[in-house]
Amino acid sequence: MKVQVKNLRKEFGKTVAVDDITFSFDSGHVFGFVGPNGAGKTTTMRIIATIEEPTQGDILLNGISVCEEPELARRAVGYVPDTLPAHADITVHEYLDFYARAYGLRGKKRTQAIEAIEEFTNVTGIREKHLKALSKGMKQRVSLGRALVYDPDVLILDEPAAGLDPRARVELRELLMLLAERKKAILISSHILTELTEICNGVVIIERGKILETGTIDDVLKKSAPRRTVAIRLLEGNHHQNPQLLKELLQTPFVVNARDVANEIHFELTGDESAACDILGGLIAKRYKIIEFRQTKANLEDIFMNVTKGGV
Amino acid sequence: MSRASIKSHFTNWREWELNPIVIKELRQAVRSWAVTGMLLLFLTVLFITSLIFLVGQSFEVSENIQLGGSMFSAFVVILAGASIFFIPLYVGVRVAAERQENNPDLLYVSSLSPFRIVLGKFLCGAYMAVLFFSACMPFMAFTNLLRGVDLPTVFLVLALLFLVVCAANMVAIFLACLPMSRPFKYLFVIYGIFQSFGIISTLIGTSFLMMRSGVGAMMTGKDFWIGVATGVGVGAALTGLLFVLTVALVSPPSANRALPVRIYLTASWLAGGLLGFSWVAQTGDASRMLAWTYPTFGVMMFALLATVSNADQLSQRVRRTIPHARWKRALAFVFYNGAAGGLIWVAGILVATFLITDEVVTAFPKSYATTAANEHWFATTTAYAFAYALSALIIHRRFLSRRPPKLAGLLTVLLAGAWAIVPSIGLFFLNQLSWKSVEGLQLGNVFNVAFLRDDGQLLYHLYFAFSWLLVMLVINAGWFMRQVRIFQPPVPVPVENAPPAPK
Ligand SMILES: Nc1ncnc2c1ncn2[C@@H]1O[C@H](COP(=O)(O)OP(=O)(O)OP(=O)(O)O)[C@@H](O)[C@H]1O
Ligand SMILES: [Mg+2]
Fold it and tell me: Mean of the pLDDT values across residues A236-241?
């Protein structure tokens, strides 16, 4: 299932929540959807889930438009909202049962599907609890279970990790990998970027309704962080040499933006790895007592800080 | 559905399942404090009432032979009060809560069709009514042991009350689905509560009448059943209309929302016409036909407003269903979404109604004197309505086309209202306002048609309205022809090559 977001725009009165965004992802992809608060992530996801209608543009799920055929699109999309309605009068099991029925699962098939999902999302122990009585993380699981119960091809998860305990987070991660293996197309928004880096193979960065970066993680990393950062630490007690080292480095070719970060010298390397080797050799020849010389790989967080400007 | 699929539907009865919404709603209702509390209160009131009756009776010297009857009446009052106030309110509030936009629940994130969603809500209301009625049953059965009440009456009264509760539920569901802000909905709730007082007192009046005159005797008469059937039929038709409208409201905007509503209205219009005509044919009294003419007129005025509020742009989804054959396409144009086709539809029904009524009146002239004035009234008002609507339409399409098409409907009302009020306000400030001026000729004011004293002057209205309409028809002709021209199935586009993978 291919999800194509095309020139999507959504206005709420005078606020432009989503401003002409275009991106796409496919089966087996896990796409991270990141951006500062109020960037328009929830709005976009709600439009994909056919809850909201775009002011302009469209979203195609294997060619099915969410505006034209919302009923068909709904069958293909599982949406995990950031909040679950707090009904006081329905239990977890009944809630899942209702959705399974609503999506046309019948008889034994339904019972099996619900049981499998309850096990999968680990809510078997709380299935007789009322929705209102659930903790945040439990709700998150039920919400996920609801979206999975009819086995949709596209999963839209709005901050699913928020409020989950560490173990549940790891479980969620494994679960998403498993779903990606089963050829689901997954879009997941989160503010915990380190976590996204581990599971996502693509990313969409959005700010104030506009897309800043999109593509596979590797591409984005290459594009927005073409230089690798190198950190040098001198042996304890030799830190007085830091200013001197800094001056030295600034005169070395392939080095830019050298700076002192908490008694470490960081610089950006414009050349390739052999250039790094030469630099290290040169420094050792000049008798700097180097205990650590490491390349730090840019991660999603760096890119995020680089491309977004901040401010809501 | 093909015959085979119908057959397999019935042979697989073991796999039939209730509408999921009914199951969910009933589960929630059973747990809800509102329902349980109301049911307990209801039972308590019933119990206390019967105690009061029985204790009161034991102090009487002479035996009250009507005791059963009066007790039954009291129970009907309580049942009517509980079910007409409470059940629609409960059902309506629940639907309204689900319609709230920040609730991604039921109405949106499920693949249930709008029809099944509305049906589920409706059935749930009906089951709740059954719950209340059966709670009341033992008490009612008890009155049957006393004297003064006959079983047929009991069943008839209860059946009618049940239907009224179902209709009230439908009204509540419809209101809850209307795209209105909350304050408006509260206003409607308050209005509904007052309205239910009216319904309840009418019901009780009727049931008392039935009790006293012994329906058992009446039931043998044919007229009685015709009366009951007519009442139920009209109620069912209106409830059905609300049902269809609610389904349209819940459907996504890209759906062909107008189609089921227009088909339903056309079908009930035809059925009503046939019934009206058979009534005329039996009694020979042509004025009976008006029982069909006037309601048609009223409903069509609302339909006209809804129609001009339609957008011109058809969604791809609707366009894909436009038939290729010429005459089929013409029919689809009239019944599908879109203001232009809708205007043809409303006009067609109104003109046909007018002509049929006219024919019937000439064929059965007995006891029908005021024909000419009535007909003028009908034609004039219709012409005015269309003139307003077309004026609003052209204003919207020319100057406000970026605004939502609903505005055209609003403009129609504003135009009619302004034309009626502004001259009077002007006269008021000139100190010339009087009954005479209101009853005098005010061309362009549609309400003036009803107030006008002099029937002769009605003709001026007729001419004025039709000339205005004619002008508007000419002005709108270009727009209309464009709509006809673009009403085509989409040209199949060659399948795109696979779009490039994400960069
Ligand atoms: N129903 C609404 N009415 C008016 N404005 C809205 C509505 N929903 C969202 N917005 C506005 O749209 C913009 C985007 O909101 P959205 O909820 O999509 O952000 P988000 O990226 O999900 O933020 P967060 O990270 O805080 O969840 C915001 O400026 C918000 O104020
Ligand atoms: Mg959000």
Answer: 83
Q: What ipTM goes with this model?
A: 0.72
B113:A101 CB<8 A = no
Structure token pair of residue B40: 């307990």
Give the list of residues 6+ apart from residue B27 with CB closer than 8 angstroms, or none: A89, A90, A94
Asked if residue A219 lies in contact with residue A201, where contact means CB atoms within 8 angstroms, the answer is no
Question: For A2-216, CATH number?
Answer: 3.40.50.300
**Mutation choice for ligand 1 from A42, A51, A53, A206, CB with most ligand atoms inside 8 A:** A42
Nearest to residue B254, comparing CAs of A297, A244, A74, A251? A74
CATH topology assigned to domain A226-296: Alpha-Beta Plaits (3.30.70)
Q: Are A139 and A95 in contact (CB under 8 A)?
A: no
**What average pLDDT does the segment A179-194 reach?**
88
pLDDT value at B476 more than 80: yes
Q: What pTM does this model have?
A: 0.80
Tell me how close the Cα of A271 comes to any Cα of chain B, in angstroms.
25
| Test mutation, B8, B14, B24, chain A, max A CBs within 10 A | B24
The answer to the question of residue B9 being in a domain is: no
User: Does residue B331 fall inside a structural domain?
Assistant: yes
Given a contact cutoff of 8 angstroms between Cβ atoms, the answer to whether A154 and A3 are in contact is yes
**A107-133 residue pLDDT tens:** 888 999 999 999 888 888 888 888 888
Where does B312-455 show beta strands of DSSP type E?
none
Tell me how far the alpha carbon of residue A159 lies from the centroid of ligand 2, in angstroms. 7
**Residue that is last in its domain, among B251, B277, B293:** B251
- Chain B residues within 8 A of A129 when measuring between CB atoms: none
Q: Determine contact, residues A2/A61, Cβ cutoff 8 Å.
A: yes
- Cβ neighbours of residue B258 closer than 8 Å, sequence gap 6 or more: B248, B307, B310, B335, B336, B337, B338, B342
In B12-113, alpha helices (H) = 20-31, 33-59, 67-81, 87-99
- Residue A40 CB–ligand 1 contact under 6 Å: yes
Q: Which residues pair with A11 in a beta bridge?
A: A16
Neighbours of B463 (CB within 10 A): 13
The pair of structure tokens assigned to A95 is 């809630």
Q: Among all residues of chain A, which has the CA nearest to that of B317?
A: A68
Q: Are residues B230 and B266 in the same domain?
A: no
The last residue of a domain, from among B216, B251, B286: B251
- What distance in Å separates the CA atoms of residue B231 and residue B30, rounded to the nearest whole number? 33
Residue B362 lies in a domain: yes
What domain count does chain B have?
A: 2
- The boundaries of the domain holding residue B333 are 258-489
Cβ-nearest to A215 among B101, B499, B502: B502
A243-290 pLDDT per residue, tens:
888 888 888 888 888 888 888 888 888 877 788 888 889 888 888 888
